[in-house]
Write a structure and sequence with these properties.
Blueprint (H helix, E strand, L loop, with lengths): L8 H14 L1 H11 L5 H19 L3 E5 L5 E4 L1 H6 L4 H4 L21 H6 L4 E7 L8 E10 L5 E10 L1 H15 L9 H18 L3 E9 L1 H8 L1 H19 L5 E5 L2 E7 L4 H15 L3 E3 L2 E3 L2 E9 L6 H17 L5 E3 L3 H16 L8 E10 L5 E12 L3 E3 L1 H10 L3 H17 L6 E6 L1 H4 L4 H12 L6 E6 L8 H12 L3 E7 L6 H6 L4 E4 L1 H5 L8 H14 L3 E5 L4 H9 L4 E3 L7 E2 H5 L21 E11 L2 E10 L3 E5 L9 E7 L2 E11 L2 E6 L4 E2 L5 E2 L6 H9 L19
Length: 728
């Protein structure tokens, strides 16, 4: 059908006024009816126009036309009104002004201006309305028109409303890319994001860190409160993560209780460690879910590109290995990836196998650390601490094997042995000195615990009030009736109860009102920094002491190592002290030597708190004047180290200590004693999240690669001392 594209000027003035009411096709139909001779051809054309008009009025589609300049010469009035205009006011408007530019909504397609300029035909081009308040999508089709001489005269076209389909597609796309429960990116979306980020950053030689998070004790929430409560808890977890990270596009839920975070342009392990610690602390705060109070925790694994992998697969795998290490070292921790973790994972599996038969082989033993009255220095009791000694590896730290025992389902068997052995040993001590035994949350959740305690007391003859069970705050996961019933059952036996590690993130005054504790143990994390100027820990300890006194409970400060810490604890009226300032754990035979009469211990230790020192045997490199010497670190702290392997190094000499894996730190010799040197680091080391230390920054593999390809070696700091030393 050839619809005239122009009218004479007289006709157009009348028609424009009528178009808003009658429509373009209605006008043409009227005109044809006025023309001479109602021939069959004219009737056919007239019927066709009526059908088009009916289609237009049905709202299923609409029509438009432009002149050669791209300005509207016709548009269906009903559509114009949806855009907040009328057909009359839109005539003469550029067609392109009706729609938003393609880039504004992220479409990847040829733009409408480009197609119009090229005089190309187009079909069902998706475009979004440009008018405020009209959030619609239209599918536009158009055909260029030419006169008899081949001159371009404009466009004629049609459109349909595809808003519903578009929104459905967006919803489907959102479901494909986002987690429906939390609204965070899902595994597929974050994987694509990580791929593109790492590819771009590799070309630009930029770093990118990722964190993998796993919630601790989340399964217990599902089991005790139900899956709807678990879903509600996951939503709150997502909200807390977003508050810390900030960028929603960089946080994802991988599924279950696993989350992943992408952190572009961050390789400072001090900052990453602080963020991981903030995340753990935030997620460990109590939640309110459907009227119940829930407490969970989190473990975090961190890997950084390009140091820990260049591809997303390598980076995620290594972050997962770091997460596994964090969980294996007691949960509620973070861990950075290092190549040592591969060996550690194998060692962990071997430890689990050996742990199953450790009791049978007689490799387990107990030592007892004194708990001392802070005023009189008299020992009032001891805490039983388990030790595992393997013939091939020596003593294995409880912080390493206890989490393995919990995961492997061995903690109940080991815990029962500890309880029975501690009661048996204590029954042989003269006097009324108490023994404290740790009870893990897994043991506490077992309904048979009171029976096992009663059986141990009956078998050994130990008076119930001489046994103190130390229970951590995590047993208050859901404040369930079972928890209250367990406390009552234990107190009915006559034993004492101590709240262990108070203040580590799960604290609530509410449960202290009902839980029948006899003692609060103040976690050593508060004690450790209490003497540092500006620390608020002293005020926190004072508040805990005041609370305990009001509730008629004793207090014990754990981890006291220096005399200034002890002095502060005494001033704050803490009733009891436990730590190296008095004694380490001693075996049963040595303990019996002190139990005849009153046992008094004189405190001894460093005058002031020092940075944590780690005794170790680690081979590292000491670089000086482009010479590399093999040395051994015997003692390491955040600010320095004690090394051996060189003879008579002058005080003031500067080294670069190479810890491996790009970890370099400049150090200055402050003490020199023949083949041993005490060095001070130029920049302090930071926590690796698992009780160790690492450098804040590493030398980028990009820089190392560039250095190895150049004629000169990687530049190292120059030194003023040029003497050479012999290996010790």
């Amino acid at each position: 059908m050839d619809v005239p594209s122009r009218m004479d000027s007289g006709e157009r003035g009348d028609d424009v006024a009528d178009e808003g009411q009658r429509g373009f096709f209605g006008l043409l139909g009227s005109r044809i009816g006025k023309q001479r001779g109602d021939t069959a051809a004219n009737l056919h054309t007239y019927e066709a126009l009526l059908l088009l008009q009916n289609y237009e009025e049905s709202g299923q589609g609409w029509f438009w036309s432009t002149d050669a300049k791209g300005q509207l010469t016709y548009i269906t009035d009903s559509v114009a009104r949806l855009m907040g205009r009328t057909a009359g006011t839109l005539l003469g408007t550029a067609l392109t002004d009706l729609f938003l530019p393609v880039d504004s909504h992220g479409e990847r397609q040829r733009t409408l201006p480009f197609l119009l300029t090229k005089q190309s035909k187009f079909d069902k081009l998706p475009l979004r309305s440009a008018f405020e308040g009209d959030d619609r999508w239209w599918a536009i089709s158009g055909r260029p028109q030419f006169d008899g001489g081949g001159k371009f005269t404009g466009y004629r076209g049609s459109g349909t409303d595809v808003t519903t389909q578009r929104r459905s597609a967006e919803d489907a796309s959102r479901l494909a890319l986002y987690d429906s429960l939390t609204g965070l990116a899902n595994r597929f979306a974050i994987s694509k994001k990580l791929d593109t980020t790492l590819a771009a950053f590799a070309q630009q030689q930029r770093s990118c860190a990722i964190m993998l998070l796993d919630l601790d004790r989340f399964k217990q929430v599902n089991d005790t409160l139900g899956h709807p409560a678990g879903d509600a808890l996951l939503k709150q977890v997502a909200e807390r993560l977003l508050k810390i990270v900030g960028n929603k596009e960089m946080v994802s839920r991988l599924g279950g209780d696993e989350f992943q975070i992408i952190l572009p342009d961050i390789e400072d392990r001090g900052k990453l460690g602080d963020m991981a610690a903030d995340i753990i602390a935030s997620l460990s705060q109590p939640y309110s879910v459907e009227g119940s109070r829930c407490i969970i925790g989190a473990s975090v694994g961190v890997a950084i590109a390009p140091f820990d992998g260049l591809s997303s697969d390598d980076l995620v795998r290594n972050a997962d290995l770091a997460l596994y290490a964090a969980k294996g070292n007691g949960r509620g921790r973070f861990s950075f990836y290092s190549s040592d973790l591969h060996t550690a994972a194998e060692d962990r599996r071997a430890l689990e196998d050996d742990l199953r038969d450790a009791l049978v082989r007689g490799e387990m033993a107990l030592v007892y650390q004194p708990v001392v009255n802070s005023k009189s220095n008299m020992v009032s009791g001891v805490e039983a601490l388990i030790r595992w000694t393997r013939p091939d590896r020596g003593v294995i730290s409880p912080s390493l094997f206890i989490p393995i025992a919990e995961e492997a389902g061995l903690i109940w068997k080991i815990g029962e042995w500890v309880l029975r052995t501690a009661c048996e040993d204590a029954a042989s001590w003269p006097g009324d000195m108490r023994v404290a035994v740790n009870v893990s949350p897994i043991q506490f959740a077992n309904a048979d615990l009171p029976k096992i305690v009663a059986k141990a007391l009956a078998a050994t003859g130990l008076a119930p009030d001489r046994l103190e069970l130390e229970i951590t705050e995590s047993v208050f996961l859901g404040d369930t009736a079972e928890t209250a019933h367990m406390f009552k059952a234990l107190k009915d036996l006559g034993v004492r109860l101590a709240l262990d590690d108070f203040g580590t993130g799960y604290s609530s005054l509410a449960y202290l009102q009902s839980a029948p504790f006899d003692k609060i143990k103040i976690d050593q994390s508060f004690v450790r920094d209490a003497t540092i100027p500006g620390s608020r820990n002293g005020a926190i300890i004072a508040a805990i002491v005041a609370l305990a006194e009001a509730l008629e409970m004793e207090t014990t400060a754990e981890g006291i190592e220096s005399l200034d810490q002890l002095e502060l604890i005494r001033k704050l009226n803490v009733s009891h002290v436990q730590g190296y300032v008095y004694s380490r754990g001693v075996p049963q035979a040595e303990l019996l030597e002190h139990t005849e009469g009153a046992w008094t211990i004189k405190p001894a230790g460093p005058a002031r708190q020092r940075n944590d020192r780690f005794s170790l045997f680690r081979k590292v490199g000491a670089i000086h004047d482009n010479h590399r010497y093999a040395v051994v670190i015997r003692n390491l702290s955040a600010t320095g180290a004690f090394i051996e392997g060189l003879l008579d190094v002058p005080v003031g000499t500067r080294f670069v200590i190479d810890f491996g894996e790009g970890q370099l730190v400049t150090a200055t010799v402050r003490r020199s004693m023949k083949h041993q040197q005490g060095v001070e680091f130029e920049q302090t080391m930071v926590s690796d999240g698992n009780g160790g230390l690492c450098t804040r920054h590493r030398v980028s593999p990009y820089l190392i690669a560039a250095a190895t390809q150049s004629t000169s070696a990687l530049a190292l700091p120059s030194f003023t001392t040029t003497s050479d030393w012999k290996a010790a």
